[in-house]
Amino acid sequence: MSHTAPQPRSGPLSGIRVLDFSRILSGPYASMILADLGAEVIKLEPIEKGDETRNFPPFVNGMSHYYIALNRSKKSVALDLKSPEGVQIAKELAAQSDIVLENFRPGVMDRLGLGYDVLKALNPALIYCSITGFGRNSPHGDKPAFDIVAQALSGVMSVNREPGQAPNKLGLPLGDMAGSIFSLFGVLAALHERNATGEGRHVEIAMLDSLIAMQGYLSQIYFVTGDSPQPVGTQHPSIVPYGSFPTQDGHVIVACLTERFWHNFARSLDRADLIDDPRFGQYQARLANRDALEPIIHERMTRDSTEYWLDRLTEFDVPNAPILSIGEALSQEHVAAHDLIETVDHPQIGSLRMVRTPILFDGEGSACAEAPSTLGQDTDEVLRDKLGYSAEQIAALQRKGAVS
């Protein structure tokens, strides 16, 4: 494949160029991880307002928290894709890229003149990744798709609640995140294949498909029993005891996934007799007698404090955890020990903290991040250095409103 060499970032994807048409979350998260892994990411944004998330409050010095969270280490090019000049620039960049990433509704890129067939003809080695809500062949295909829509249609909201309570969405935007995560699997597999064949692929990911694929054992419960799993709150549909248990002053998570952990837990409760009780001796028995066992656990645990139980459960080697707020989670010793937060300097904001990618290679994390770009910050550089445009050509495009 012949194209102008991108400015390398350190990491296993150094030398790979990504042309990113995506916006909001499903797509930008994937391209950010590719950037973290060393790829050069050129993000194309609408001229006037950029990625929609630039306008989502709260803000710090005029920049949205949402945009900051998903767009580090990318170059921002402000481009009018409804102008012939803007489309031509996008084509020229695609011809020099390894990966194109987009998350418009099906058919939008074709209508812009930037569909897979067009860009593949320009660059047969191109890996073209499309993330949509429902895919091309879905009866929902023309509907707008957002995280909560995918969560509702995937079944996950039906179980994400306490029994008898209203359905609730996950606190994480997992519908969007799932689309991004599976797109990374597909893109990296296609890159590996291209090393052998020289040919690219059209990778297609639907957010709804991705969430359904992440149901894990929940779908298998339905296939095996014919019954949909019912909401159990923090508890487990088939493992007992498991979940959040009340203490004198709060709650503690306990997870007895093995018989050894159940025996340890019973002993920590000073109730070793429960181990030999036929109602609680085996997985199936505890599941059938959950309503009898849990009041016994609650009665004992509410006599002592959360701190007491965290220490005692750890002493007895029972899987346990406190329930932390987001702020507490980011401040815990584990996060510092794993160096999960880094600080970058931003020209508009100043010092800016961000959560790093968790992938380690030979014990080392990703290269230091670059601050999220302001809208169009890199337009001139990309047109000049990647496409060879002169200052006069760039100025003419700016006058036409094709770039900014």
TrEMBL record:
The keyword Transferase belongs to this UniProt entry's keyword annotation: yes
A molecular function (GO) term: CoA-transferase activity
Top-level division of the source organism's lineage: Bacteria
Keywords: Transferase
Stored Pfam families: CoA_transf_3
Keyword Magnesium appears in the UniProt entry: no
Protein name: CoA transferase
Source species: Thalassobius vesicularis
Lineage, opening ranks: Bacteria, Pseudomonadati, Pseudomonadota, Alphaproteobacteria, Rhodobacterales
